[in-house]
Amino acid sequence: LVSDKLPRYTESEITDIQVLSPMRKGELGVEKLNAFLQKYLNPPEPGKEEKITGDACFREGDKVMQIRNDYQMEWEIRGRYGIVAQRGTGVFNGDTGIIRTISPQLETLTVEYEDGKMVDYSFKQLDELELAYATTVHKAQGSEFPAVVIPLLGVPHMLMTRNLIYTAVTRARKCVVLVGSAEIFREMVANPTEENRYTTLAERIREIAPEQGRGEG
Fold first, then answer.
1. Is residue 69 a contact partner of residue 58, using CB atoms and an 8 Å limit?
2. What global pTM score does this model have?
3. Which of 45, 57, 106, 142 has the highest CB neighbour number within 10 Å of its CB?
4. pLDDT band at 26 (very low <50, low <70, confident <90, very high)
């Protein structure tokens, strides 16, 4: 689905297809999905460098995400023959890109971000990155993708809300694929927990305002 059908249907690259999970943990959480998707979408090959750090394995060609704001991180936009056309600083939480090179000799990993910015990470900075074949719905807020795949199995009850499924579905520009339980989808659509929370807050504010007005008088 992710490696063939959706890229052809949406006329996109494999790395443009985004899997969005409601949770990080569990069989269909982001952590296990990323390991699974990396295995099939970007398997190890002779001559393809990789770097293992902690529980993570980064490989040339992997889709990755910056997971914290780093205002001092330097980037370059490089033209033909690698000539630097522009320099700047700042890579931000949620930025996604592709690992272009890993140099064991220099102990660096280079990521090309969506806007063409090239960022060199030292191996000591790799805790700022994580695989991004799959990401949480929360992390994807504000982003759009040609196609989105949403697994709906084993979702914790507290995450089964209309707001979350709405956010996930509206990340897609062309195509949304729901994989899993139709019953969970129906429960999420029928659960306006987020809306009720804000409505209750608004009602409480309206209750407090008259009380304050009377106190001031």
1. no
2. 0.79
3. 57
4. confident
